[in-house]
Amino acid sequence: MTDRPVAAPEPAFSLLDDPLMRLLRALRLAPRQGFKAPGRGLLLAVISWVPIAVWAAATGRLGELTWGDGVVRHIELHVRCLLALPLLVLSEPIANRVVGAIVDNFPVSGLIRAADQPAFDGVLAS
Predict the structure, then answer these.
(1) Which pLDDT tens digit goes with each residue over 84-96?
(2) Residue 9: how many CB atoms within 10 A of its CB?
(3) Domain locations in the chain?
(4) 48: which of 64, 81, 96, 120 fits an S-S bond (Cβ 3.0–4.6 Å)?
């Protein structure tokens, strides 16, 4: 008997098949397989923040390091664009595993009755 690692079964529910991922794939912003979260997170940061920086440079507000009306005044916007949005995208693979494990435990835990299992499977398939 050999001690080989056993692969975890594929969850019945996956965020890879949700409507947003299908839209992103149709727009070619997400890969056909997997999440590719680091690249998408960087792309989202660039798409959301570069127009703000370009606008600030074009209006002469990029260099204003005062709290009056410069770029520094809106630091929470920069944190959202450069930190929060990429972190949200980077969390997708972890969220996929956690949510998949939770949904897979619905029938085992008794939340889904045996009579409701076909309807539950239909919801997961849809």
Answers:
(1) 989 998 998 899 8
(2) 8
(3) 36-109
(4) 81
